[in-house]
Write a sequence for this structure.
């Protein structure tokens, strides 16, 4: 199977689908080769193999595989059919692609595929990150942040080379190798931050890049997506900010400083061009990435809801607050470098605000939001056209502090939900209206409900008095009868059984009234 | 008494001889054979929970909650009668909250035991 490289010059080849058509592009190096092809056009298989062999001989391998691909492209249109397929990275192109030799193919697959995949990923990520970096001018940052990353980010929970590649691709090529297996989380953060920033910032060129990143990240990091996918697909920056606040784990501490610095650096760079949203996103994403593995998906879900709600409802305010939170978090974690970086010229405003705001404020915000926002959050969240990657990235944020807040709230809510048991109002209404025989106003029912509550209180008191008097702990039917007698319901003229028969359904009557059956049987058995 | 016996006979014939178990009675649905309007089943568990909440040291006997339900029905009955009388006195075709309020005062005092 010949795969055509995405070669602009090959376009004329792609146009002609006819097998017999042989349009030779102008850049054909060797006319002899083409003539040979012409000669052996009918037997394409053989011609291809022959051509390949000839090409191998002639074309120096040092020129690169793209040259070879070019030569391959010159092969008969048979390759055209294949060329329509997705282009294969140069590394993965096999020398013997045209020749069907399963042996060689497998050998190459084993070795070259992995390398090709990695390289491909690197290239793609590099492209993405380069696009980002160009916009954000991270160049100046890479030098400082990379070092810090390398130094600080030692413990990586996720030894995923993809992530490491991601993070480093954007920063520097040499660093990529170093950080490959080190900072997958940070890398994700960067990409996620970029993604989120791009998504959130409406009018920014980066958005396109971030979106691209998102898609690519998604495609490239299925693992993370899986992890995050389980969690709710938070969307907003607030999520990440909250998460950052809540990042506490010692395991993350090391990663966080590096991420914080990175975030700060990114923030600094981007602040010049970006809206506050983008900065927030990046910061949050970077930090949140450290906390990717949230202990419970539920927490992240809630947090994501929180953040989305906050973001949706308080776009600007939350952004600022998120920034503040982010800065606070950074301060907490690092306490030095981040804030210093953050407090740059453009971000002075933000830092000031951040310094002023305290965690309780953000907590309050999150506290305020829960009830009504949670209910609303679901609606705006689906409305937001957030790509899946963004959602996954957002879901990755595992905010611990908001989790605690939410947990506290939930515990408070839990007992409230249980409430006291109350008789079903419908039952009360039905019985009362049945006995009243005339229409009853709705307000009257409320009064009746209150009466019923008072009645039950009185009833329990009386029953307790009677049972205690009898030195018992269980309320018996005799106690009830005594109560009814004292109430005036049961008199000498009106025995209890009559009342039972009158007012209780048959099933209950059977249980309450002992009846003598044939054979000296009494039911219910006493 | 005679009525009860005849009723018992009828019941015995239609009875499948269910086993009677001491202790909290099993919840049973309203008999489907009852024609005409059938009141809803007594919320036995709710009643027990209510009393438990007020007096946790107290427990109810097997069928004592049914008698509690009976008492509750009779209470509502008296309340409704009193409210209806009040509404009738004020020449109103419907029972209003003020009628019920006045009735409640009287009946609650009566139901003190």
């Amino acid at each position: 199977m010949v795969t055509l490289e995405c070669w602009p010059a090959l376009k004329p080849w792609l146009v002609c689908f006819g097998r017999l058509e042989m349009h030779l592009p102008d850049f054909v190096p060797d006319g002899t080769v083409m003539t040979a092809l012409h000669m052996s056009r009918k037997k394409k298989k053989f011609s291809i193999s022959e051509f390949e062999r000839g090409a191998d001989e002639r074309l120096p391998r040092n020129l690169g595989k793209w040259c070879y691909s070019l030569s391959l492209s010159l092969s008969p249109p048979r390759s055209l059919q294949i060329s329509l397929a997705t282009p294969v990275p140069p590394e993965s192109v096999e020398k013997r692609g045209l020749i069907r030799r399963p042996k060689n193919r497998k050998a190459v697959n084993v070795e070259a595929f992995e390398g090709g995949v990695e390289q491909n990923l690197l290239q793609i990520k590099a492209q993405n990150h380069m696009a980002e970096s160009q916009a954000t001018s991270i160049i100046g940052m890479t030098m400082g942040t990379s070092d810090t990353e390398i130094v600080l980010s030692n413990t990586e929970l996720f030894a995923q080379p993809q992530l490491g590649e991601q993070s480093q691709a954007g920063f520097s090529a040499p660093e990529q190798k170093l950080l490959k297996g080190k900072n997958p989380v940070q890398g994700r953060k960067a990409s996620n931050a970029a993604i989120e920033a791009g998504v959130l910032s409406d009018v920014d060129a980066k958005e396109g890049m971030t979106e691209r990143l998102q898609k690519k990240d998604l495609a490239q990091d299925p693992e993370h997506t899986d992890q995050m996918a389980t969690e709710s697909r938070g969307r907003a920056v607030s999520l990440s900010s909250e998460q950052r606040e809540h990042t506490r784990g010692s395991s993350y501490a090391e990663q966080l400083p590096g991420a914080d610095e990175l975030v700060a650096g990114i923030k600094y760079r981007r602040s010049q061009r970006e809206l506050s949203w983008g900065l927030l996103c990046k910061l949050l994403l970077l930090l949140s990435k450290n906390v990717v593995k949230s202990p419970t998906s539920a927490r992240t879900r809630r947090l994501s809801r929180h953040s989305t709600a906050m973001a949706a409802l308080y776009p600007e305010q939350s952004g600022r607050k998120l920034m503040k939170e982010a800065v606070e978090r950074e301060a907490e974690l690092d306490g030095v470098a981040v804030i210093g970086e953050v407090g740059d010229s453009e971000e002075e405003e933000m830092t000031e605000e951040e310094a002023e705001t305290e965690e309780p404020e953000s907590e309050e915000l999150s506290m305020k939001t829960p009830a009504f926002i949670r209910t609303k959050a679901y609606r705006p969240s689906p409305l937001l056209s957030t790509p899946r990657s963004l959602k996954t990235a957002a879901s990755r944020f595992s905010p611990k502090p908001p989790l605690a807040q939410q947990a506290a709230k939930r515990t408070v809510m839990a007992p409230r939900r249980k409430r006291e048991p109350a008789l079903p109002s419908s039952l009360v209404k039905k019985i009362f209206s049945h006995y009243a025989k005339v229409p009853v106003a709705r307000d009257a029912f409320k009064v009746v409900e209150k009466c019923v509550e008072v009645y039950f209180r009185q009833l329990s008191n009386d029953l307790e008095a009677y049972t205690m008097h009898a030195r018992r702990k269980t309320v018996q039917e005799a106690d009830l009868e005594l109560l009814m007698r004292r109430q005036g319901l049961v008199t000498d003229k009106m025995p209890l059984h009559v009342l039972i028969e009158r007012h209780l359904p048959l099933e209950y009557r059977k249980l309450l009234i002992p009846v003598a059956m044939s054979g000296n049987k009494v039911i219910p058995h006493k | 008494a005679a009525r009860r016996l005849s009723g018992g006979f009828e019941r015995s014939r239609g009875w499948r001889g269910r086993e009677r178990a001491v202790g909290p009675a099993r919840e049973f649905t309203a008999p489907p054979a009852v024609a005409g309007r059938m009141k809803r089943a007594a919320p036995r568990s709710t009643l027990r929970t209510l009393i438990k909440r007020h007096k946790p040291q107290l427990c109810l006997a097997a069928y004592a909650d049914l008698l509690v339900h009976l008492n509750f029905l009779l209470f509502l009955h008296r309340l409704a009668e009193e409210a209806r009388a009040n509404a009738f006195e004020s020449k109103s075709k419907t029972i209003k909250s003020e009628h019920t309020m006045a009735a409640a005062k009287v009946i609650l005092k009566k139901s003190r035991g």
Q: What stands out?
A: Chain A touches chain B through 74 residues (CB under 8 Å). The beta strands of chain A are 474-475, 515-517, 521-523. The first helix of chain A runs from residue 11 to 15. Chain A has a mean pLDDT of 58.
